[in-house]
Design a protein that fits this description.
Elements (H helix, E strand, L loop, with lengths): L9 H21 L1 H4 L9 E7 L4 H18 L4 E7 L5 H8 L1 H12 L3 E5 H7 L14 E2 L2 H10 L3 E3 L2
Parallel strand pairs: 1-2, 1-5, 2-3, 3-4
């Protein structure tokens, strides 16, 4: 038998490759650098909800999901932001006239949920902050998509109801 002839068998080669891959994966999972990145059980959960449709039924459903999320995790364990752009900005427009929607938005805001609106959408559609329920200058972001990207890169979990 020639030296290293066992490598000519495909089974040995595949088994060796899988073994090396499993060692690399295990090392990455348990390395001290990686362990520092894992979320602790007591860490605040950062979540961003993305709303871009002009659909009052979807808006109410999304807001119910938000409240269920808070109820299930605890208000002190969450940091939630709602980013609205395009048709989604209508959520706060409808809230001006719809008492149920307005009440739901207000209840979520009292639980520190932030509602952020896309400045591009406001400008292109000629919508003023006064046209939106309880929108303040600090609620306006330059770009809704840009804000979603920034928040995801900062570690926020993305949810699209």
């Amino acid at each position: 038998m020639k030296p290293l002839s066992f490598l000519a068998r495909p089974g040995w080669l595949l088994a060796g490759a899988l073994f090396l891959l499993s060692l690399g994966g295990t090392w990455a999972l348990f390395s001290s650098e990686r362990a520092g990145e894992l979320a602790e059980a007591d860490d605040k959960l950062q979540v961003v909800y993305h709303i871009n449709a002009d659909d009052p039924a979807l808006h109410l459903n999304a807001l119910r999901n938000l409240q269920n999320h808070i109820d299930g995790s605890g208000v002190d364990r969450l940091e939630i932001k709602v980013v609205m752009h395009g048709g989604g900005v209508s959520l706060l427009q409808h809230a001006k006239d719809d008492p149920d929607l307005r009440s739901t938005v207000d209840t979520l805001k009292m639980q520190d949920v932030r509602f952020l609106v896309c400045g591009n959408t406001l400008d292109k559609r000629g919508i003023a902050l006064d046209d939106l329920h309880d929108a303040q200058p600090e609620d306006r972001v330059p770009s809704g998509i840009g804000e979603l990207t920034r928040l995801q890169r900062a570690g926020y979990t993305y949810i699209k109801p």
